[in-house]
Amino acid sequence: MDVLLETDSLEAFLLTLAETAAARTPISDGCGITLERKGRPLTVASAGTSAPYLDEKQYGQNDGPCLTALRTGQEISIPDMSSEVRWGDYPAYALASGTYASLSLPIAAHTHTAGALNLYSAKKDAFADADMALLRDLAAQATGALALAQRIADAQEFAEDLQTALVTRAVIDQAIGVIMGQQHCTDEEAFTVLRKASQNRNIKLYELCTELLTKIGGRPPTEKGLRPRR
Description:
Order of helices and strands: HEEHHEHEEHHH
Structural class: alpha+beta
Distance between the termini: 54 Å
Radius of gyration: 28 Å
Helix content: 40-55%
Strand order of the largest sheet: 2-1-5-4-3
Shape: elongated
Low-confidence stretches: none
Strand content: 15-25%
Largest sheet: 5 strands, antiparallel
């Protein structure tokens, strides 16, 4: 089973994953998927009723089983919340909310977007007979999806950076051409003139060149009209 192939976005995939985990673990009454980005955890998808507020309690104290699974890459199983002594007052809060057992599986451990698949139940030892192979497979699918999303994001960022670099270079090249025509000098000499002017005015070379071309053309250079010198 590959949930990712059945959905058309990362958001839809994570929601389908949470719903699948909850449906295939009927003893649970809630499933949440936590992702942490730049130290800030967030429930990005949930099924059932218990996950959102139990997750939020852990985020509020910056500690708890789901965050431990997320940050350590280890599976965290709590068969009986009433005998749990870790994580401050979280166990008492969970018990007061009617939750007696939980299971957290790491997603994309030790990456910039680590997460956890979290299941909660109102019964003790609820996950003793859970289909761990299935749950681990779902967590692995989430890991793969997040890695793919990150590669796509990185590729888009690289493409944007490359485009910016090309536009910047084209503006500088056109400005060099202008100086060459005005001062009848080589391209190296023209570049030196522009560089010194940018240093003297304490502005970036690209900004100086844009200003020069704007004065000559009557409007700022546009990406469409830029062509590097050959």
